[in-house]
Amino acid sequence: MHLPPAGRLAAIDPGTRRVGIAVSDEMRMIARPLPYVNAEGLSATAKRVHDALIGYDVALVFVGRARHMHGGDAQSAQKSEALARELEKLGLACRLVDERLSTVAARRQLKESGKREHAVRELVDSESAAVLLQAELDAVCGPPDVEVR
Q1: CATH class of the 8-141 domain in this structure
Q2: What does pTM read for this prediction?
Q3: What is the dihedral of CA 12, 13, 18, 21, to 10 degrees?
Q4: At what angle do helices 102-112 and 117-141 cross, to 10 degrees?
Q5: What is the C-alpha to C-alpha distance for residues 38 and 11, in angstroms, rounded to an integer?
Q6: Which of 36, 73, 114, 148 pairs as cysteine with 77 (C-beta 3.0–4.6 A)?
Q7: How many of the other CB atoms lie within 10 Å of CB of 34?
Q8: Cβ-contact 17, 39 below 8 angstroms
Q9: What is the pLDDT of residues 46-84, one digit of tens each?
Q10: Residue 77: enclosing H or E segment and its boundaries?
């Protein structure tokens, strides 16, 4: 997979009510969630995502595209494609990626960290974007080396 040579990477997990956002560190090794934005109309949502990423020097945004477990596109896949087109109009390069199970993994991570259900609901969208982004970072750069002593 070819990536821009410089700049951070970001990911979004579009939902019907919220869009989760995550951004990488400058070395493209670790994903961290940013606050979600409300999904209220395609153009307005794209503008909110764009504004949330200003100042991070983002070179590419991975846009989660919902797919069924059997591999076919979910109904919301067209919305992800449309949001990616709107973001590109605002100057953000985008790439659609499979987001199957990212929300499930995010919810599990949040619960395992001791978050209560109310907090999980508030954080899951952006945590899901972080899961999606970390998977892409690991696929491209490999997981960070950990030295065990």
Answers
A1: alpha beta
A2: 0.82
A3: -30
A4: 120
A5: 16
A6: 73
A7: 18
A8: yes
A9: 999 999 999 999 999 999 886 544 555 446 667 888 999
A10: helix 77-89
